[in-house]
Write a structure and sequence with these properties.
45% of the residues lie in helices and 16% in strands. Helix 3 links the parallel strand 3 and strand 4. It has helices at residues 16-21, 43-53, 75-81, 97-106, 119-123, 125-129, 141-148, 160-172, 188-201, 214-220, 225-243, 258-278, and strands at residues 7-12, 29-33, 62-66, 88-91, 112-116, 134-139, 176-179, 205-208, 249-251, 254-256. Helix 11 packs across helix 12 (258-278). The structure holds ligand LIB3CWND and magnesium ion. Residues 6-211 form the HpcH/HpaI aldolase/citrate lyase domain.
């Protein structure tokens, strides 16, 4: 069963208290960050703190380690240190598939994830997504906005080309893909609107920077009661139509074909996976 990735919480690996707290937080996945959230002077101690933290029990939460770039003085050491012991290694600023080749050599047995946050990465999203070792993609909307020279807009118009391109690439190759962070972590309405936009586009979930953002992401990226009810009724109606030798059913005045049944089944499976995670 595919794991849900509704809420993916960043935690600075230098913050022992936050890493401990995360063992009980309602995050579907955690990104332990060695990159941007850790100051250069803290890089070495953060690596040790994280190695100790990963021995703790995080339940079913996926544990993803974001290493420093392999072009930095810390990247290779990070990759070697966490080649085992985490559920995935997240490589920052992936601009081309060869960036993942290098990571794959250093991390032979653990799935790789890619931060999609450079202009070149957007243009190469398809070849990055099809890399055989890649499991998931994370939008880095802060770095992307910086590279583009984009202004912040609530509708994220300047970022939509990049978001859509990465989503297409991820879906073409069956990868998980989660949306970027919403920086104003006390603005609940703003977060909800951005989660709704990401959900409408098709993202699996949202990366988050503060525990206060978890509940909204978990709610928005889960199927609603209405969606579940519709999915069940579509499956029943289609089975009935099929029994009568028809290829199409009608539910609530809309046609239901086999492709809608695939979506309906995926909706029910997602709800089941979420329920399992909570149990
Ligand atoms: C943003 C923060 C610096 C705020 O921290 P703080 O002032 O400590 O918040 P609170 O006092 O409200 O914290 C309340 C309690 O919650 C815990 N806490 C806070 N944040 C986290 C967290 N991320 N995970 C787990 N627990 C957390 C505190 O320890 C408090 O606990 P308690 O002691 O029990 O009261 C801080 O939230 C923070 O550092 N957030 C993460 C920032 C980060 O990781 N940034 C890097 C990723 S974003 C990025 O790089 C995206 C991408 O690359 C791009 O380009 O877009
Ligand atoms: Mg970034």
């Amino acid at each position: 069963m595919t794991l849900p990735y509704r809420s993916v919480l960043y935690i600075p690996a230098a913050n022992a208290r936050a890493m401990e707290k995360a063992q009980t937080l309602a995050a579907d996945a955690i990104i332990f960050d060695l990159e941007d959230a850790v100051a250069p002077t803290e890089k070495a101690p953060a690596r040790d703190l994280l190695a100790a933290a990963l021995l703790a029990d995080y339940g079913s939460r996926a544990r993803i380690v974001r290493i420093n770039g392999l072009d930095t003085e810390w990247g290779e050491g990070d990759a070697r240190a966490f080649a085992r012991g985490a559920d995935a290694v997240l490589v920052p600023k992936v601009s081309r598939a060869t960036d993942l080749d290098r990571a794959a050599e250093l991390v032979p047995d653990t799935p790789l994830w890619a931060m999609m946050e450079t202009a070149e990465g957007m243009l190469n999203a398809h070849e990055i997504a099809r890399h055989p070792r890649l499991q998931g993609m994370v939008m880095g909307t802060n770095d992307l906005a910086k590279e583009l020279g984009a202004r912040f807009r609530a509708d994220r118009l300047p970022l939509l080309a990049g978001l859509g391109t990465c989503l297409l690439a991820a879906r073409a190759h069956g990868r998980v893909i989660v949306d970027g962070v919403f920086n104003a972590f006390k603005d609940e309405d703003g977060l909800r609107a951005e989660c709704e936009q990401g959900r409408d586009m098709g993202f699996d979930g949202k990366t988050l920077i503060h525990p206060a953002q978890l509940a909204i992401a978990n709610e928005v990226f889960a199927p609603t009661e209405g969606e579940l009810d519709l999915a069940r009724r579509q499956i029943d109606a289609f089975a009935e139509a099929k029994a009568q030798g028809k290829g199409v059913a009608v539910v609530d005045g809309r046609i239901v074909e086999n492709l809608h049944i695939e979506t309906a089944r995926a909706t029910l499976a997602k709800a089941e996976a979420i329920a399992l995670l909570a149990s």
